[in-house]
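Hi again,

Forgot to attach this to my earlier email, sorry! This is the prediction with 4-fluoro-L-phenylalanine bound. I've pasted everything inline since the attachment limit keeps bouncing my files.
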Amino acid sequence: MTDKTPSIHGQWSSRFAFILAATGSAVGLGNIWKFPYITGENGGGAFVLVYLICVLLIGIPIMIAEIMLGRRGQKNPIDTMQTLASQSKADPRWQYLGWMGIIAGFLILAYYSVIAGWSMAYVTKGFFGSFSGADATAIKSLFDGLMASPIQQIFWHSAFMVITMQVVMRGVQGGLEKTVRFLMPALFVILFLLIAYAMSSGAYQQGIHFLFNPDFSKINSSAVLTAMGHAFFTLSLGMGAIMVYGSYLPKDVSIAKTTFIIAGADTLVALLAGIAIFPLVFANNLEASAGPGLIFQTLPLAFGHMTGGWLFGFLFFILLFFAALTSSISLIEPAVAWLIENKNIDRKQACIWSGSACWALGVGVVLSFNAWSGFKLFGKNLFELLDYLTANLMLPLGGLGLAVFAGWVLSQKEAQQELALPEQGFQAWQLLIKYVAPGAVFLVFLHVVGVL
Ligand code: PFF
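Structure tokens for the complex follow:
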């Protein structure tokens, strides 16, 4: 283990371990909880199409850049940006990109852990049969009851944070890698079981039609911003998580090939989650645009009325919990790596410090659903504010910065040395990272602030 060596701070044991870990980071609540509800809120197919285009033209080139910068820098995101900027004789302020990333990860984890806590609460509710035979009113009051109870939510949020900290404390190979090796295959098995279930018991065609038939009248600039932000969020881009994972990547692994596998798996899981969820939503006359409570308010109702629904309901929320855990560890890892490498403290202490701070902000998020629900800024409660600020603004902005750095600041010889792509592949990447990705992010921002 090299975890304690500050300069190289750990390494994955193989390419496969990195693929599992990065896919674990990418596949999370974003795919199973968020993608379905924002698709539902934004009218379905057209939104899905915009999201897929963003993944392809913006997400993939930026993911290649982010892994490349991480492996080149060999440090946490702040020091990586500092080192690479100084090697490129560029402004040292590029390190602020690393800072913004670590802060974004911290803000995301604060609410991510609360939602992951809901999934843990629902694992136990499913297990003890709370969904069995319950009608819409009972299921709604189950969810409302959880929302209204700070104690219950803080309990589960705390449990999730403690588990995350426990994993991260054990280091790159002993903690992160061991966990994803077990959880990722389990996640795929559960997802396929659920799809088989939805295909046999749900309004399958209606679900597919909703997901894949674009109706462009439902798309506006805010939907495009949400789709683009979600491409960043779901691929874990723009905040240094993939950069720090890239810094643990052995030198002989092809970054581009690996990126296609990770982004492909992530997109597949989101679409499969949609295919598993919407047929059940429509078969039970539930509301596709129910918002963040979608899967919690709708699916238990479906599960509660179907043969075998008890088991599948229980499995579904375990799946959600697993997916959240393999992502939460990557949300906190950049901050932990920075603390270890700069503050002369060990991994355990670094986890305790960063985890506790996140936990405290998470308590604020819990309260935004009940005691503080009246407290709003720009019409949003704390949860909505953190979500908007991180997914729609900080991650795309971080991604824009990374694209500009990788395409314009870093010497292209170094980039090519690290990527080792065939000439045409490298040129295609350059075109995307220099012009297409930054241009697209910029245009969407201009449109949102009303300039375009
Ligand atoms: N990609 C994760 C998801 O889809 O749930 C969320 C996430 C993890 C975002 C790590 C950002 C990150 F750095």
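Residues 25-26, 28-31, 105, 108, 233-234, 236, 239, 241, 327, 330-331 surround 4-fluoro-L-phenylalanine (CB under 6 Å). Confidence is low (pLDDT under 50) at residues 1-8.

That should be everything now.

G.
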